[in-house]
Amino acid sequence: MLWSSLIALVLVARNAEAIHTLRFACSQLVTERLDPLVNPGKNPSPHMHQIVGGNAFNTTMDPSNDIGETATCTTCTFSEDFSNYWTAVLYFRARNGTFKRVPQIANQNLAQAEGGMTVYYISPDNTTSPITAFRPGFRMLAGTAENRKPESGFVNLYRCYDSYDENMFFKPNPMGIAATDTTELPKSFCGGGIRVNTFFPTCWNGVDLDTPDHKSHVAYPDRGAPCPATHPVEIPQVFIETIWDTEKFDKSLWPEDGSQPFVFSQGDPTGYGHHADYVFGWKGDGLQKAMDARCDVYDASPEPLIFPPEGCPHLKTQSQKVANQCSQRQVAVEPLDEWLDALPGNMPITYS
Hints:
- The chain is mostly beta strands.
- Helices cover about 10% and strands about 25% of the residues.
- The protein has one domain (about 5-340).
């Protein structure tokens, strides 16, 4: 739904003239305070996350385990994608100082998904080398939770929707120009929700499946340039999209001064600290085959599915109804949908 407005950004970043896109839904697996990438083994972790993907998600996510082989179900459309994707959670702060979790809206043409995210894997045509799919044990982090100002080489893109209709067509038209996108949380009331897209790096050093900071083994190329010599291997452009249902929180609940009332679970009211984690978990070599074939899959249509094998014969799909049945109970058990006196974990709100 939004991908064409982001194509220019991806093209410039990857210096490509044509790209191919896998776009699919991943409904909610669980929402809880666990972060096995940044805080492995810690229960609970400092702030709340929304998690989608395979049911092998756990407190530690031991990198020696191939989660593509250990997971038994996934919330994603592609039934061989047992990867896990997670981001911070958006909260509304009312004028009386209490907080409530903002739910997600399923994406256009993916409306059967129960909240969650839309996931994109993008590969260009005119690349100097093949696109190398990730390997078991690979993981990475995009963004920095502590940021309150723009981060060099990384952006989130936000869009404020005025409304949407019964067919989940959003206004303003998400296929339009990216001029309405911002790199910080919108400051106005968004009756159709707030969309946020988070982009992962596209270059890898070809050696390390992870590094202590979960970033140094990957890199963003300079705009219009190929991958740097330090990270010469081109990997798929992964980005994830969430639409937060901000319409439920009308202006009567906003702070009396009209200031922006939304804050991410790590205490970020700016949006610059929004971040995402990725742990690879595709089964077998399906993702590599899809990259080699430059598969294009944009929509998950109502059942029966009309893409794959036509869209990408190398990948297997499942109905969204089946995907929605894959879920986990909270390990770090705490309330999700009540009004709270503080952000989960008593995370302080910081502006710098």
